[in-house]
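Q: For a teaching session next week I want to show students how multiple molecules come together into a single three-dimensional assembly. I've collected the sequence lines for a complex. Could you give me the predicted structure tokens for the whole thing so I can convert them for display?
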Amino acid sequence: MGETTPFDEMYNPDGTVREPYRALSEWLAEQPDRGLALMQTDAEAIFRKLGITFAVYGSEEGTEKVIPFDVIPRIIAANEWRKLSKGIEQRVKALNAFLYDVYHRQEILKAGRIPEKLILNNAAFCPQMMGLEPARGVYAHIIGVDIVRVGVDEFYVLEDNLRTPSGVSYMLEDREAMMLLAPDLFQRSKVAPVENYPENLRRTLQSVAPEGAGSNPVIAVLTPGIYNSAYFEHSFLADQMGAALCEGHDIFVDGGKVYMRTTTGPERVDVIYRRIDDDYLDPLTFKPDSMLGVPGVFDAYRAGNVTLVNAPGTGIADDKAVYTYVPEIIEFYLGEKALLNNVPTYNCTDADQRAWVLDNIGDLVVKEVHGSGGYGMMVGPTSTKAQHAEFKKKILARPDNYIVQPTLALSTCPTHISGDVAPRHVDLRPYVLVGDEVRITPGGLTRVALKKGSLVVNSSQGGGTKDTWVLED
Amino acid sequence: MRLAIDHRLTLTAPTGPFQSVFHLLLTPPGGPTQSVERWDIDMAGFETAGRFVDGFGNVAHLVNQPRSEDEVTIHVRGTVSTRDTHGVIGRPAGEPVPALYRRLTTATKAPPALVAKFRGTKESRVDVLHSLMARVGDMLGLPDETPAQTQMQADGGQSQSQTTEQKTLPAAADYAHLFIGAARALDIPARFVTGYRLNETNEPAVLHAWAEAFDDRLGWIGFDPQRQMCPTDAYVRLTVGLDAETATVLRTVPAAEPAQQLTVSRAE
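A: Of course. Below is the structure for the complete assembly, covering every listed component.
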């Protein structure tokens, strides 16, 4: 784990340009003064026109913001991508096999490969899912794997997001904007397309429709509504797929089957791509006071009359405490070594590890086990002494609520910073679809920490995005 | 023994925007201790109900009705023939792995003092469970000859609601929860059971609750810590779950608490 100089994706240590960035480097050199700044202004206009916004929770200013977009694309070579996508495919297959197992015979627990209590007493484990047979045995159909790069050949998986990962609309819009802004740059490189994501999503969803659905299964996208931070994405994806965008009250269950209200009367729904969390999905089975969900929809799912995507209870496979066992999970179900690295993770419930963590907190990253979106985390090297002390207290009070990892030297990419080009840290979230086959969109969403030296790339914490290019051979 | 059951659940008209949805766990399973001879559920909308098996192996029905101003009645009647197996249920097919029932829930937590003396014991699991049952009885107190002045015991909701001149005892669900929590603290899978129980006194029948714990040799064994006995042929199992909440016989949206009337008698 390079704790020294971060890996620069554009330049070799001797200052020469790495092969995948050659065309970009030449193009950058040709840009007139203020060229990038003008492009940046155009980009903002494009995004405002597209209406892509996101909400920042806990912020007192206006809640709707335009996500910052960086006009310099991030570039991944064909051979690098082949390796990465193989590793990702291996991971999502193993995690789906794991989900099938924990909701059936629990062989991995019987074999003692994962502590039973870690699963059974986990809040993310959903006992109501026991014994259910999801279509094609798939639980997590839509996955966003968070990956960081620290060296030429060194990639680490930070998180497997198997609940309702968001951000794919940024990936699509970033590409669209980039093609408008720099069409000439696309002519110099063969870039793998991402535009077919909505079509692949639709295929994936239809492929997991329950038996008995017709040849053209009906898909509904279930959103919590306009106040959700990702509402734009929900409506965007529904629109792109030609599916109905529904809120809870638009859908109802009758005779164990699911229907949506339409202007021409009730229409049967076969697949629900739900962007509502498990707890709020069905007040009959989960949180009884939830107004967002559909009463009885989980029962209809159990009765085999509708498919929920992703299945409830997938969170047990991306739980931060279970994360440390993913290499074990891959070996157990696939009999293979993990192709992608896990970040070493310290377990604070172990007294020795905890003592070491408390002594070295200034160099470490602390994350809440059930946190996401960069909330409830602390990056040691960029935090104050007071923050260190605060998190030490938190760890001591609830050691099981935190995982601790070394601070990774995230790779950097050239980024446009007020007229200049400077390296900034990036991560990568490729989007994976699992249905009749595994479909991985080349590239994914690159998030960039726009503040110099910052390692926090979350959009809620001042991060931006970049178009991500996978070059074709 | 053959038992006749007549169970009526009445809800005052739930208010809601469109329709009322009912999740019924009111169909008893067959098994080594009981065969269901006849079972009818009478309720508007039941004919078209969705029928499925829930995560715990219970037969469930999902009924929906247009919102009405009237009372909603669910009338359940049936005859079940029972056998006394000293509480042993074994390993019925179609149930989740027993390990599931080591999961702790908010309702099933036991004080450490209750289980401390059983840690590392050389006694057999069955003996431990019997001792646990006795200790739960000691801890919560036991009904006298004229037992439990409680209603809706299986839901655990109204345990202390009835004030009588005599002592007020916890509901059957409280005994079961404590027993289950203690068993799980000892890594023994244990689950919550609701069902019917024939009592030949004059007290009004109520939905009963007890526990089952898993033994590697015998499979599931019933324990009724409120009555300090293993279930006999006077018991009919209706639902199982992690606790009272997951085993509850009726859930509705909008939420409403049913009034229940029950008779359990020997069938002619």
